[in-house]
Queue: 4 jobs
Job 1
Amino acid sequence: MANRVDWQNAVETAVDSRNINSIYLTGAGYVDYEFKGVARDSALGWQETVWGGDLTRSTDFVLTNIDDVDFGLVARLEISYKYMNVQDYKVLNEIAKQRVCFATYYDRQTATWVVRQEMAFTGNELAKLHTYGSKYLGELDVKIKLVATNRDRADIIGSSFTITLNANGGSDKRSVKPETGGLRWSAAFKLPTEATSSTATDGFYRSGYHLVGWNTTANGTGGAYLPNQPITIWSALTLYAQWEAN
């Protein structure tokens, strides 16, 4: 049964009638403490800088055990207020002392609730809280961000994935095909371009046509990419060459 969302009243009824515009934090003795009317800055699927190096000052996070990972799929939440109230500020400070907490929030990209995902405060955000100190009563536009630890993604971090490039009526003339050996999760890969001739070894070729891009579907109705476009590898991917008659 699908989740039922009452957008007018901002209530999602499948999970204890929680408010879809709230973030619920568990930590420091608080269970699903509701921060009302706050903003979810981004959701799973956004490319955010991996914060592992900062977080491991006090906690062993999976990401720091992986070599050469510069970017990762990191969920990020933002607790933001035009005017921070006393009670929420006190609770936020208590939870922040532990660095790690669990967040429950509504992910509009997938139209589902994310229940108690492990999140952490970075050093920068802790410094913000400490800077506010006794001045928080007069602070406007308070924004405190949390990032996912990604420990629940340990099964895919460091894994390798194959990018399958379908010539879709053309020919793959490349002498070097770096994607066939598998590309590491979060690795960069540049999509091929059109070959300079029928005998070249530097791209894809189709007589009477020129390459205009790549697509996740053969008929070009899916996700579109440009020739020579750099992409980041998050999973296995099949792309079809898109041709246009000369």
Note: Residues 160-245 form one domain.
Job 2
Amino acid sequence: MATTIVPATKLDALIAGAGPVGLAMASELARYGLNVRIVDKAPVRTDKSKALVIWSRTLELMDSAGASAALLAAGRTCNAANLMSGAKILAHIVFDGVSSPHPYGLMIPQSETERVLDEHLQSFGVHVERSAELVSFHQTDTAVTCTVHKPDVGEETLEASWLIACDGAHSTVRHALNIPFEGETLASDWMLADVQLHGMPNPGEMHIFLHESGPLAIFPIGQPSSQATESQRSRVIAGVGAHRPGQARPEPTLADVQNILDQRGTGGVTASDPIWLANFGINERKISNYRSGRVFFAGDAAHIHSPAGGQGMNTGIQDACNLAWKLALVRMRNCPDSLLDSYSAERSPVARQVLKSTGALTSLATMHNPALLAFRNTTVSLVLGFPPARHAMADQLTELSVSYPESPLNGYADAAQPKPGTRVPIQGGEAPLNAGSSPRFALFAEPNDIEHHELLRAFPDLLEPTLRNPFHADGIWLVRPDGYVAVASTKWPDIRNYLARLVS
């Protein structure tokens, strides 16, 4: 028999979906003291590797959240990526020169990412409610009334200030609101294999092979072996031809994987012990606005892209970190609701750029015209032979280049770089930004006791109490909780005016 339960305490947020993005969202809101619940219709966490890499920018945000150490312990760092044609290296992209405390990609199966983030969420006293499906909701100007179905309870009705859809590419919330998921399905089929590889050169690095038959990508997974000659668990992804509508491809076999490795790779690499073999297609889609009243969208519910570059999960987790501090300020510091409109204004262009760049990489890798193949390889080798181009590629892959140049939250700018909307370079030896239990802005400036103390008295709940070293002499930088510049000025009143407008 169905049971209706109306909780006595109104929720601040209900999060639908407990993948990495939903877990990050729930954890950040719980860290800031909001009353949240998170539901997922799956009975257990995924046991698949799925999204494999956590990039530098996401790890910086996980430093602030307090989850990076556990993630690092569960994965392995990868310091370079290689673009190859057979055994020839066309370009070698290294990450150890990027300006971050995490100059690498963290190779970690999604199953482990979810485990770590789930345990992190539990440290705040919040547990994922599994086998719990959001079946309907209705929003008003003040709340969202949600109906959740649980097999052992029936239907539960609850009220939340906000509903956050982190429920994936087939989002129930998005469908219920009839929000278009605009884009296309690529006319190509792909193979995925998690296997043990023996004889792979530089097994701790990423390898992308450009071949006339289609691309081949190989990524290390999990902890490294003690010797480079031992077999390593690896992810193999390969294009397997044009999609044939109405004709499902048979599941790949280990022999299929070996044939592709022999044909497109360096040679001498042997695959064994398959853990996961599957076919998949690529969709490139996004919604235009990440907000619909009191409903917000994050991760795959808002955007899906080619796996090229491993940007999808990272983009989603960064969605969560962007939205969480804003919700917390509206809920806990009475900032105006209009602050929340900046979420879509900032994050939608980021996803648009990810779609553009990953789509371009996929098109480049799947080129088949014989007349263009040699030109492509020569051009890639030539362009990425210049250090500035390699550095730019490293910044793009690690997502350190993500910025908000057109953000409505960007304030006054008359100081030198970094300008408003730009991510601040993390200073060596400094504590992570925004590592406490409430979202706080940071000030990077030379000591000025009078001006600084006046700001702390006026905005005690919005500012870190300690000044950080300025990026240049005579400049003052107000930096948002998520590490992007809000104001870059030479005058202290500009900081006061910005904060006063924020809370007005």
Note: The first strand starts at residue 11 and ends at 16.
Job 3
Amino acid sequence: MDEKLKKLARKIEGLVDRTDPPQLVYDDLCIIAKRQEDYFKHLGPDNFIKLVFYIYSIKNTNDFALGDKMINNLSFIQLIETEGNHTVKTCESCGGDGEYECDDCDGNGYINCDRCDGDGKVSCRSCDGDGREMGDGEWEDCEDCEGSGEESCPDCDGEGTVTCDSCSGGQISCDYCDGNGDIESETDYDYTYRSIVTWSRQISDPCELKEKQNEPAMSEYDFDRLRDEYITLHIHEDSEPLDILENEMYCIFITTEPELRFRDSNKSMTVDMSRFSRLQDHLLA
């Protein structure tokens, strides 16, 4: 199969624009795989990874010796890291709006005037609602209400409604999130799962030593310093109450014989390790 992959690498290496480091070859091939999804899914994720190294090797050395050497030394690792940021979640009380509709006015911002009960009219104060007043010894129509016995309500200026005192424009600021629409968790931290493949003992050795332990395998600084010595296959972000140090890399799984699978996105098709769920439980606070 490796000889077939090498032939395939020669055929398609011209489609890969970026040649170094291997991460860029992988990223380009993931985009190509998305366009030829059926073919690459038939090829399988294990052979896809080998193809990355063969294309990298032929691009940079014009033969496959380097690719074979890298493939023979591969380790597949799952790491977890956090920058110590508390998880910010959408406020459930207001749905993230930062405010909610006032019950008193049904979100209108106005309620019926108590004085006129929403009619906009009250009994005429000049004639006490009679519609008449005593003129020159006889009853005459009230001049103020023209005989109707009613006048415009002075409290609402005849509108029948007044501004609701319970809200602002029909909305009430959410007390639970202080009107922000989101809430910072007191217990949960944002963290990142990172599935990588590496050919470097500088990465795999400390990960083997610290696998599934509560101690970091290496610092984020050292990991970044070795960024050309590994390929990030897939990244997944989540949040939980973790008891880990900031900016440190914790190894939750390492193997030389991984179970791999494809993951689809809108623009590319990445490779991930099948063992993924709940491997971080020993790191929970």
Note: The longest strand covers residues 182-198.
Job 4
Amino acid sequence: MFSFGRTSYDYAREVGDGSRNSIVMACVLFICRTFPEAPPRVSQLNRDNEAVEIQNHPLKLLLNTPNTFYSGRLLWAATLADRTISGNAYWLKVRSSVGRVVELWWLPSTMVEPKWPDDGSEFISYYEYKPGIDPIRLETRDVVHFRYDMFDPKNIRKGYSPIQSLLREIFTDDEGGNYTAAMLRNVGVPPVVISPDADSMPTEEELQAVKERYQQVTTGANRGQALVMTAPTKVQILGFNPQQMDLSSLRDVAEERVSAVLGIPAAVVGLGTGLENTKVGATMKEMREQAWESNIKPTQDLMADEIRTQLLPEFGEISRTVFDFDRSKVSVLQQDENELHERARADLLAGGITLNEFREMIGQKPLQGEEGDALYVPGTVTPTAQADLLAPPEPQMTVSENPPRALPPGGKILSILERSKSLPSLGVPLNLTDEELALIAAIEAEDLEAARALWHAAAPDGLEELLDATTSG
């Protein structure tokens, strides 16, 4: 029995397993209907560790037709509903005369209980199946046991359903529905007190007659009819008007909590609180994607692991065999085709992918020959060898946008020449930049126009001494 802190009220007794609540069942039905969109798949790993699907693997055929009475989709639906609500689901393996598994049957979790020795020497020694009065012993090798995403802390042989943590919210929603239904079933308004407005008190029979008359003309199909009293009478309403009794916000809490715990956005199952969110936030497609990411995909992965552990070994060596669910055809998980084509075309025209990579992205077969491996470089881009990309760039003279200054009449040119590079024409040790050397060369050639332009670029502090040195030479 599950209990909550700070209360002794037995919500589990009132709520049961939660399957009678519409919010819970809306989420459960979504899981049952959506899960089979990705069919089971058995693959073999090749030498390159690539999974190659085995089309007619016996396990896949068995899951499609588990027995002669119902289909694989119904088997999955019953299993998923049971696993979600109770935390556990069971399959029975039916064997042929030679011991091969030929049928699978769903067993209600309420009828199955794992058993183990008192000394704990075995985790589970067998399962007890009780469809009637007398229990039936099922060997562990004949049972596939699916647990929810976590163990039950009170019995680690079983799974734990998160619905157990939602009993108060489910109870609140149930009571809100019951209250509204009771109001509408009776009067449509809260209960009333009818009392005589006179000095004399009516007899018990007269009071009962007034009560029956009031109920007769104001409830059921007669609601809204006029009631005429034969004596002065007071009618007092116990409660509030319908607007004051609006329980929608209170019931929204239950919708939000149940959908959050199960990982199913409320909008995708049609719950009111979720539909309100779609008006101001995410689209329905985005919420369906979220449902897949937070519930369906993790559920498939965990159940695939259990099948690989408990069922796949019945069909031979499994060291290089993979069991999973093929989600490649699930529409909500596929990228929009137009968006995919636009992105692939942009990558191709930008020179980022080859023609064959482009064709693969849009689902076309690759071309044979070198043309399929060619990159289409845009006309605005110049192909450059890798060695050229790594070479240091050639130094370039940067010219300021400010208008060139006039050559100074005299001065301080040596202040920019006090470095360590040799300039033979001057006999001065210098370490000049390329711009400064070009400036000196222009002055030596007495090309004043070039000197002024270079002066502007190099901007030395003084030029007259350099001019004097060249002219005197």
Note: Residues 284-310 form the longest helix (27 residues).
